[in-house]
Amino acid sequence: MSWAVQFLPEAERDMNGLSRPQQAMVRKAIEKVRENPLPQSEGGYGKPLGHKRGFDLTNLMKIKLRGAGLRVVYKLIRTETQMLVIVVGVREDEEVYALAHARRTKNHL
User: Fold this and answer.
1) Rounded distance, CA 82 to CA 66, Å?
2) What is the pTM assigned to this prediction?
3) pLDDT digits over 43-60, tens only?
4) Number of structural domains in the chain
5) DSSP class per residue in the chain
6) What distance in Å separates the CA atoms of residue 10 and residue 16, rounded to the nearest whole number?
7) For a FRET experiment, which of 14, 30, 31, 47 has its CA 20 to 30 Å from that of 20?
8) CATH number at residue 39
């Protein structure tokens, strides 16, 4: 079963700010993960986040695109089998985690 994917408006802008090849890599990674975005502890691809550099990201998951240095942070909405993409960005000094924390707070996630 494939989960529905929805983007926060800010995450859409993140995607649009990436180069075309980077966008393609992120889309491919999201497509793979959406088949089973559950945490690894439940047999899925999801890598749970907890506390990252002082930010509480509990219940959020990440997709790491190591070769591209990109991160995708998402939240599972289990009642609807939906993935909500919160941030897509380059891994620079944990900036994606700070953005994820701010967007989580702003959008009451």
Assistant:
1) 25
2) 0.81
3) 999 899 988 778 999 999
4) 1
5) -PPEEEE-HHHHHHHHTS-HHHHHHHHHHHHHHHTS-SBGGGTSSBEE--EETTEE-TTEEEEEEGGGTEEEEEEEEGGGTEEEEEEEEE-STTHHHHHHHHHHHHTT-
6) 10
7) 47
8) 3.30.2310.20
